[in-house]
Every structure is written in C-alpha cells, then in structure tokens.
From TrEMBL:
Coiled coil: none annotated. GO terms for biological process: phosphoenolpyruvate-dependent sugar phosphotransferase system. Its EC number is 2.7.1.-. The gene is ptsN. PROSITE patterns: PTS_EIIA_TYPE_2 (PS51094), PTS_EIIA_TYPE_2_HIS (PS00372). This is Nitrogen regulatory protein. Gene3D superfamilies: Mannitol-specific EII, Chain A. It comes from Pseudidiomarina piscicola.
Length: 147
C-alpha cells in the first residue's frame, strides 16, 4: 500500500491545504483514472467532518474514491510542524494519508486502526522523525510494520 514514490522525508508544508495538495500529487499516479484534484477533494471533504490530526504531532488524513482500484498510502514527515487542528492542539509533523476504493469500507477502517496504533507508539514516531531520506523513512515505516 505504501511505496517509496509516495514517501517523503522533511517536506516543506506551510499549511494543511498545501500538504493535502502534495498528497494528491503523490497518490494520483498510483490510482488509475484519478486526478490529484480528486484525491485532494476527497481528503478535504473528510477534513471538513473533523480534523484527522490524532495527536502527538500525527495526522492520518483519509478518503474513499469511487475511481480508486486499490488502496494507496502516502507518508510524509514535515521539516516544520504545521497547524492541523489536531485533537490535542499540537502541530503536526508526521502525516500518513490513506486512500481506498469507495466500496472497501471494512479494509479502510482496519487499516486506519492499525496505522493509528503504530503512530501512537512514541518509539515509532521518534524513529520516523529522525529519518534523513525518503528511502530511510520508507524502510523505517516498513520495518516498524513487521515488528
């Protein structure tokens, strides 16, 4: 679900909107028939229901797309934390976005729960924040996943 081309370390993200736009740009090529604007709109519509900032500097924006044929994830660390209207009012510097086909509701919920659990682990988030490259961030996330 997460691929190296959808993993970015130390991204400059000046606002929640800019970060969601970047997620759209990274995810759309992996979702045939889906534009970066489709992804952005899906994420933005979900954010309007309530922030996906789960606390401790982490956000998990997510959305379902009728045009998506498979789940796709995007992982970003930000060079400077941004306001994401998180539940604990802390700025966010780790963003894990999840996009799934509209009809895969159960998988969507299970994946969100699993990612949220991992990103609530302080040793996991500390390691992700220390990643020095996109590849290191990707490798760290995948090694955390299998542990």
């Amino acid at each position: 679900m997460l691929s190296p081309d959808c993993t970015r370390s130390a991204v400059s993200g000046s606002s929640k909107k800019k970060v969601l736009e970047l997620i759209g740009q990274l995810a759309a090529p992996r979702l045939s028939g889906t534009t970066s604007f489709d992804v952005f709109e899906s994420l933005l519509n979900r954010e309007r229901l309530g922030s996906t900032g789960i606390g401790l500097g982490v956000a998990i924006p997510h959305g379902r797309l009728s045009t998506a044929n498979k789940p796709v994830a995007v992982l970003l660390t930000l060079d400077e934390p941004i306001d994401f209207d998180a539940i604990d009012n802390q700025a966010v510097d780790i963003v894990f976005a999840l996009l799934v086909p509209e009809d895969e509701h159960e998988q969507h919920l299970q994946t969100l729960a699993s990612v949220a659990q991992r990103l609530n682990d302080k040793s996991c988030t500390r390691a992700l924040r220390e990643a020095k490259s996109d590849q290191e961030l990707f490798d760290l996330f995948n090694s955390q996943e299998s542990s």
